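User: Here's a protein and a ligand (TLP). What would the complex look like?
Assistant: Let me lay out the input and then the predicted complex.
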Amino acid sequence: MTAEFVDLRSDTITQPTPGMREAMASAPVGDDVFGDDPTVNRLEQSTAELLGKEAALFVASGTMANQVALRCHTRPGDEMLLERKAHMYWYEAGAPAALSGVTCRLLSSDRGIFTPDTVIAALRPVDVHFPRSRLLAVEQTHNRGGGTVWTLDQINAVCEVARSRDLLLHLDGARLWNAAVATGVTEKEYAGGFDSVSVCFSKGLGAPVGSALVGSSSLIERARHVRKQLGGGMRQAGIIAAGALYALEHHRERLVEDHANARFLALGIADIPGLTTNPALVATNMVYFEVESQPAATMVERLRQKGVLVLATSPDTIRAVTSLAVGTESIERALELLREVAASSPG
Ligand code: TLP
């Protein structure tokens, strides 16, 4: 995408910074399938430490991290409990069924955040007729919930009830970094109650590729095998792991800028006639808003023609995501163009 576009489609669109490219170019590498890549090893160790777990596995994407975890935790016919609009259910191409033979039990929530009672109500008794309730998955921040943040108390409460009913626990922490920066609760504290956590380096942190799955040494050993089965064993992967390491070391704290830009964007949108959003609900780097005057897809196309890229997430909803690719001036420009497009009819 050319530089004139204000690209708010996702925080996945960022380009590696010059410092990151330099780190990637000079990274020592080796064959990671043999465990020989020092940069991958360093990334896995740092990530495990940061999350307070024994081990980590570098994988190609957040989807791969989540699905490898699911495969490790379940057997075919098992059931996973997760929120109705969770990424693992909504955006992972049917992988729980296709790759693990797992069915999904969908939980209702308030913008992605559900309660211990909801978990209890969804649990199946042990009975020959039923799938085995095996895993509870939580998403932090919750993407389709609006980039919402679970408090530590909310997370611990669902972990406790799940644990007491013998469920395993997975955290889809693609944007756990954003939650940590937004609340001051560390990634490690959030990860404490979970058997496995996935984190992404290629969202707000700005690395070009890569995610990690973290957990106990035995889980990660098994995950390494599953990753190989899926064709995800990479060779001189240190080239991309170096970008992830750089992101981890240099781009976490700056996420506050993305959050401030998202709030600024939401406040601007709330003032535009025909568009609706609640800035008070913008907790991280995502702004969801409703469009009254035209279908969301029409507005997305008209904005594209003017130089603003956003995504329609339902017939009347648009998502805009801030990242290191968009500074405050770009947000001001996006707001101007949003005003123009909302004020004129599609014609
Ligand atoms: N989300 C992407 C799209 O897939 C929707 C985005 O633009 O937000 N967990 C969560 C919570 C995610 O939001 C995403 C990506 C993933 C997992 C998957 O990561 P990737 O894209 O690396 O497979």
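Summary: The domain at 254-343 is CATH 3.90.1150.10 (Aspartate Aminotransferase, domain 1).
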